[in-house]
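> example.struct
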């Protein structure tokens, strides 16, 4: 199992933590260098989430046409090129375009590794394999923190280093993932309306999760600097702690097996939403507890969405994950854009409270008639 899971963890870390979420980590420095307002910063983050959704739309077609290895290579190359573009950005528009390119990789990587799990892992290992590969985001966050501290005032060097690591991970995956990893599915006319109808409740849940979580990813570190006047070290430690905690999210596969999809989703969403509220309460305990709680629950939640998708579509795992993460990305794109406007119109604390309440809406998503195929451990 680990032969395929380890390079998967690395690629997920590169495409998510480096190419997408690191923007929030370096936002104070990037904004200072390029004179970005909160709304402009929110629009850039929104574009990265948007490109993620664009890639998700194409992922199933590309996997079927080119095979798993080629799509993994597409994901790695987009991360390398996007990160290099960010490093050399001299203004808003170049940064916007580079963020779009960088965001594509995450949209391709999640569905293709779900396909890799189905193709190369035993059935009893698939939930664990999927959720462990999903923790790549956490490992990427852990690595990005020390890099941010090492190059505190030189964020461009950090992105150059990210690009170099992404290239190494691309080569690693190229050597490990079999070239014959093409989907065995016959080309067929997919009944999209039927699929969307079947997955409508999962898609609604994914959208709400994306909308709520985007505010934390984009603005948490800026909030710590503006509202609490945290030092660079303190705010980066907050980010790294979030990554370390997220590794616990790799246990989501076992959690789902014991509690089922519905209980796992509701408990995790409640705790993830609570993290947005905790950060607004002054005090080291509440602030860092927020980091730990969000780190664990976000990784666990995305793992739940992956497993949920593959349970609804056991014969089309890449399509199921693509649909779920597409709505997750739409929610994150919309949330990042709205979030910057909310901050400028009101304040950071009120923004977190608003998005906390949005997250709670997911608790009302029904689970009836979902035809979820439960798998016993």
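> example.seq
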């Amino acid at each position: 199992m680990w032969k395929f899971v380890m390079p998967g963890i690395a690629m997920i870390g590169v495409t998510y933590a480096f190419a997408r979420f690191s923007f929030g980590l370096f936002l104070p420095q990037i904004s200072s260098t390029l004179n970005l307002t909160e709304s402009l910063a929110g629009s850039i983050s929104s574009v990265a989430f948007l490109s993620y959704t664009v890639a998700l739309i194409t992922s199933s077609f590309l996997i079927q046409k080119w095979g798993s290895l080629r799509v993994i290579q597409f994901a790695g190359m987009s991360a390398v090129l996007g990160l290099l573009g960010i490093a050399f950005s001299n203004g808003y528009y170049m940064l916007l375009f580079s963020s779009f390119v960088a965001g594509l990789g995450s949209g391709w990587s999640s569905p293709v590794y779900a396909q890799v799990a189905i193709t190369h892992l035993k059935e009893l290992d698939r939930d664990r394999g999927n959720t462990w590969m999903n923790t790549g985001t956490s490992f990427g966050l852990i690595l990005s923190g020390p890099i941010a501290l090492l190059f505190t005032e030189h964020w461009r060097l950090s992105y150059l280093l990210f690009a170099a690591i992404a290239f190494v991970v691309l080569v690693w995956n190229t050597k490990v993932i079999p070239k014959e990893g093409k989907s065995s599915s016959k080309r067929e006319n997919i009944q999209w309306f039927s699929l969307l109808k079947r997955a409508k409740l999962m898609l609604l849940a994914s959208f709400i999760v994306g909308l709520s979580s985007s505010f934390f990813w984009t603005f948490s570190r800026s909030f710590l600097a503006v509202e609490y006047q945290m030092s660079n070290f303190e705010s980066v430690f907050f980010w790294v702690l979030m990554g370390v905690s997220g590794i616990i999210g790799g246990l989501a596969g076992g959690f789902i097996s014991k509690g089922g999809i519905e209980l796992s989703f509701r408990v995790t969403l409640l705790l993830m939403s609570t993290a947005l509220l905790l950060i607004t309460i002054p005090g080291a305990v509440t602030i860092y507890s927020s980091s730990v709680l969000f780190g664990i629950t976000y990784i666990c939640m995305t793992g739940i969405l992956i497993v949920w998708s593959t349970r609804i579509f056991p014969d089309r795992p890449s399509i199921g994950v693509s649909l779920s993460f597409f709505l997750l990305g739409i929610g994150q794109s919309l949330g990042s854009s709205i979030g910057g406007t909310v901050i400028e119109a009101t304040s950071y604390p009120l923004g977190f409270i608003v998005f906390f309440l949005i997250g709670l809406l997911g608790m009302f998503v029904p689970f009836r008639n979902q035809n979820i195929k439960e798998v016993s451990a």
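> remarks
The longest helix spans residues 2-34.
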